[in-house]
Amino acid sequence: MKILVIGASGLIGKGVADELAKKHEVIRASRSGDVQVDINDPQSISNMLNKVGKVDAIAFAAGKVPFKSLNELTREDFVAGLTDKAIGQIDLVLKGVNHLTDNGSFTLMSGVLAREAIVTGAVAAAANGAIESFVVSAAIELPRGIRINTISPNVLVEAPGYHDYFPGFEQVKLADVIRLYVKSIEGKHTGQVFKLG
Predict the structure, then answer these.
(1) Which of 20, 141, 146, 155 gives 20 to 30 Å between its CA and that of 181?
(2) Strand, helix or coil at 151?
(3) Cβ(190)–Cβ(147) under 8 Å?
(4) Nearest to 174, CA basis, from 161, 157, 154
(5) What is the tens place of the pLDDT at every residue in 83-105?
(6) Are 100 and 54 in contact (CB under 8 A)?
(7) Count of domains for the chain
(8) DSSP string, 4-27
(9) Domain region containing 111
(10) Which DSSP letter does residue 118 get?
(11) pTM for this prediction
(12) In the structure, what pLDDT confidence band is assigned to residue 145 with cuts at 50, 70 and 90?
């Protein structure tokens, strides 16, 4: 398969791209890579898709949100976080559907904050919840046998900078997150939220 991995310079994206590259042709996209994309910019998404052409799968492993207490958050914080983590992925699906082959797939990324709360996690919760609901809904409307799933992991063992935000949470291994991406891309599931931790 020819697979586009967005966020391929990050911890999860690089791991996913490296694993998939053992069996597939992988195109790595990021803000600074050979194939560049700014997920906040619809034109940048279009430019990337036009550059890579037809692919069999698109996997997303990126997205930034502000972590602030609720009384510090502004409307602008929510707009920025939802745009970067949720709207960018939704734009990717809306534009990417015409760049996928028949029976191709999207694998998006949400996270544990869609189902569990932490202090400072309101923006991430809103974005993750939006993606998970979108995937369930989009799955019944995508044409040509195209599938869509999202990976929803807990905080990573390998991301210690986030550990203090998630006291008492079950940390998950990067290898297990990568395994779920492979399951989504190489399997036949659709409309699934693959929860880990």
Answers:
(1) 141
(2) strand
(3) yes
(4) 157
(5) 999 999 999 999 999 999 999 99
(6) yes
(7) 1
(8) EEETTTSHHHHHHHHHHTTTSEEE
(9) 2-196
(10) -
(11) 0.96
(12) very high
- Strands (E) across 61-140 are located at 100-109
Taking residues 29-46, what's their average pLDDT? 94
Mean of pLDDT over the chain = 97
Structure tokens, 181: 């991406």
Which distant-in-sequence residues (6+ apart) come within 8 Å of 143 by Cβ? Answer: 97
Domain CATH for 55 = 3.40.50.720
**Residues 106-118: tens digit of each pLDDT:** 999 999 999 999 9
Q: Which residue has the tokens 């976080």?
A: 81
β-pair type (25-30, 100-109): unpaired
Selection from 106, 91, 185 nearest residue 142 by Cα: 106
How distant, in Å, are the alpha carbons of 49, 118, 178, 180 from that of 59?
Answer: 13, 27, 11, 11
Between the CA of residue 34 and those of 4, 37, 127, 145, 188, what are the distances in Å? 12, 10, 28, 30, 30
Cα distances (Å, whole numbers) of residue 12 to 17, 81, 153: 9, 19, 11
Structure tokens at 139: 């799955």
